[in-house]
Design a protein that fits this description.
227 residues, Aspartate Aminotransferase, domain 1, Aspartate Aminotransferase, domain 2, four-stranded parallel beta sheet, two-stranded antiparallel ribbon, alpha/beta, 2 domains
């Protein structure tokens, strides 16, 4: 069942609000609109980059009908925490694009991610630990510093040295013209300024992985803008 169908089957439509993350693509917000409801944006957890239950709880109104967590970059949201928030208010939880079964490619990505996690210095690697599920569809690090110019300069330096990378979320959804809201979502803004996706594809060779590490570590995690 698709996300829109799941919402409409649950009776969600005109006049209802559905809480979604802003740090994601616009797909979840668009699904809410297609169901006739209104997307309301909440902040993210800084470790998972997925909806933060505490922020979600703070956004609830009498019109809130559902929560829509997004599985981002292969990482699962805190579904237990979100369901606890939903149950206190009698809301439903509709997961947007839950991850599929792990296959050989995702297992290889996990191996590659483990290699990067153990060796990268000067960047903040994805949070890991007991109970953390991550298929690493995208390998996202944070570039420490004073905001976007540092991350963007770091990305340009990587590309100049032959390492592929991209900004995983260019603009939070609540700042897109079609969904613009006057909000300040601190962790969302911080992630939008700091996050960078590095290559972790299943087809990467050991030599290519070593190059990613060598180039990143040589840059030291912070490349100041030229004066």
């Amino acid at each position: 069942m698709g996300t829109v169908e799941a919402l409409t089957t649950a009776g969600i439509g005109a006049g209802d609000e559905v809480v979604v993350p802003s740090y994601a693509t616009a797909d979840a917000a668009e699904a809410v609109r297609r169901a006739g409801a209104v997307p309301v944006f909440a902040d993210i957890d800084p470790d998972s980059l997925c909806l933060d239950p505490a922020s979600v709880a703070a956004t609830l109104t009498l019109r809130t009908a559902a929560l829509m967590p997004v599985h981002l970059f292969g990482r699962r949201p805190d579904l237990d925490g979100l369901r606890a928030v939903a149950e206190r208010r009698g809301l439903i939880v509709v997961e947007h694009e839950p991850p599929g079964t792990l296959d050989e490619n995702s297992r290889r990505r996990q191996v590659n991610a483990a290699y990067l996690n153990a060796r990268l210095r000067g960047v903040v690697t994805p949070a890991t630990g007991p109970g953390v599920e991550h298929s690493y569809r995208t390998y996202v690090v944070r570039i420490p510093g004073n905001g976007r110019p540092d991350r963007d300069a770091f990305a340009r330096a990587l590309r100049a040295r032959g390492v592929r990378c991209h900004i995983p979320v260019q603009t939070p959804v609540h700042r897109l013209p079609a969904y613009r809201r006057e909000l300040w979502l601190a962790e969302t803004e911080r992630a939008a300024d700091q996050c960078l996706a590095l290559p972790v594809d299943a087809a990467l060779t050991p030599r290519e992985l070593h190059r990613v590490v060598a180039v990143c570590n040589a840059l030291g995690g912070l490349v100041p803008e030229a004066a």
